[in-house]
């Protein structure tokens, strides 16, 4: 971005004083959308309060929390989603004091146009980022920005604002046509391509909140739920709010969970993490939580099971026992500390996990060994047993 364009845009954004500047007005229409452990950016688009955000922010949740930069909070209900375009629309269930931002459906984002976006971050602080449109996105295509905001844009949903404060698009992780499926650059979905969605939602809020939330398959448009990995009608793999950049490794984990009779989409808790409850054959009647992770480059599958909390006393003999167990009894598994929690972990190359082992046996053996260690550590040291994600 040239310094001349950036300077001109900044001057326009600040025109009118700090309180009534273009940027100041825009900030009041932007909110943080929180869904479980996920959060992203949203902005008020309609007079009835409907907020545009990204589907990757809300995932399969129907209820979210909205918060403004001024500290106001309200519950929100997801009333419409489009997983293929990475869009979600949220209705506030109480007033948040934010007016809708003006929209510019035409002209489309123009090549070389200087723009600004507001990005929600943890703590409800909005970060301002300037960029230039480097691809116009005509013919229904997505536009692109330079610099690519990448991870700065979080889970998407941020409004892209022109020099006079109008929203010309929304940051999305939907794939641009003709690009590699792994191209995860944040692109701009022009407001003009949202017109039909917004018209359908521009109704009294009372009736809108009673609508049933429907997720539709991007292949055949049939309804689907998070309880399925594949569309029951056309058979394609269904999208998930979390994705990894290692589709081959992700497929290994999905197939492993299917072998256990589990739905990977339903068990997924992060871009490279799944969480299940598993009971070892012939083991304790109470299941243990197993977290399945892929390393950052998708080369290793890592299984972890919580055992006990660190005891309040006798730390030296406790640590000595852990070290001895790692040398003599744990085999390919390892005992380690995660904060004040002892965990049992197993790591295997993705290729070996997929082809050289009975997946069910790996889970059974890990959980059975965890049951044994948990019992010993609790009896000898009074350590608090753990079986789930409460740690």
From TrEMBL:
Keywords: Hydrolase, Protease. InterPro entries: Peptidase_S1_PA. GO terms for molecular function: peptidase activity. The keyword Hydrolase applies. GO terms for biological process: proteolysis. This is Serine protease. It comes from Polyangium mundeleinium.
């Amino acid at each position: 971005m040239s310094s001349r364009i950036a300077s001109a845009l900044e001057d326009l954004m600040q025109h009118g004083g700090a309180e009534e500047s273009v940027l100041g007005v825009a900030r009041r229409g932007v909110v943080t959308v929180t869904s479980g452990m996920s959060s992203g950016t949203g902005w008020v688009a309609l007079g009835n309060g409907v907020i545009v955000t990204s589907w990757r922010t809300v995932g399969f949740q129907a209820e979210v929390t909205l918060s403004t930069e001024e500290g106001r909070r309200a519950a929100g209900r997801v009333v419409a989603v489009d997983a293929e375009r990475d869009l979600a629309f949220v209705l506030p269930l109480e007033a948040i004091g934010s007016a809708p931002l003006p929209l510019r459906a035409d002209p489309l984002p123009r090549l070389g146009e200087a723009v600004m976006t507001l990005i929600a971050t943890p703590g409800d602080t909005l970060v301002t980022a300037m960029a230039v449109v480097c691809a116009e996105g005509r013919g229904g295509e997505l536009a692109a920005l330079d610099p690519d905001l990448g991870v700065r844009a979080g889970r998407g949903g941020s409004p892209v604002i022109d020099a006079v404060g109008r929203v010309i698009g929304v940051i999305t992780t939907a794939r641009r046509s003709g690009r590699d499926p792994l191209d995860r650059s944040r692109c701009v979905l022009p407001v003009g391509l949202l017109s039909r969605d917004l018209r359908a939602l521009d109704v009294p809020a009372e009736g809108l909140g009673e609508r049933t939330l429907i997720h539709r398959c991007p292949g055949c448009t049939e309804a689907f739920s998070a309880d399925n990995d594949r569309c029951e009608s056309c058979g394609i793999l269904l999208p998930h709010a979390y994705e990894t950049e290692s589709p081959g490794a992700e497929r290994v984990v999905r197939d492993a969970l299917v072998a256990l009779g589990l739905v990977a989409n339903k068990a997924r808790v992060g871009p490279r993490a799944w969480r299940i409850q598993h009971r070892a054959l012939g083991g304790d009647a109470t299941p243990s939580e197993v977290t399945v992770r892929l390393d950052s480059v998708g080369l290793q599958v890592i299984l972890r099971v919580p055992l006990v909390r660190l005891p309040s006393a006798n730390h030296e003999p406790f640590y000595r026992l852990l070290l001895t167990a790692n040398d003599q009894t744990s085999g390919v598994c390892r005992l380690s500390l995660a904060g004040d929690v002892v965990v049992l972990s197993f790591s295997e190359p993705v290729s070996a996990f997929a082809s050289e082992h009975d997946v069910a046996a790996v889970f059974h053996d890990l959980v059975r060994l965890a049951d044994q260690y948990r019992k010993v550590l609790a009896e000898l040291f009074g350590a608090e047993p753990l079986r789930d994600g409460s740690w």
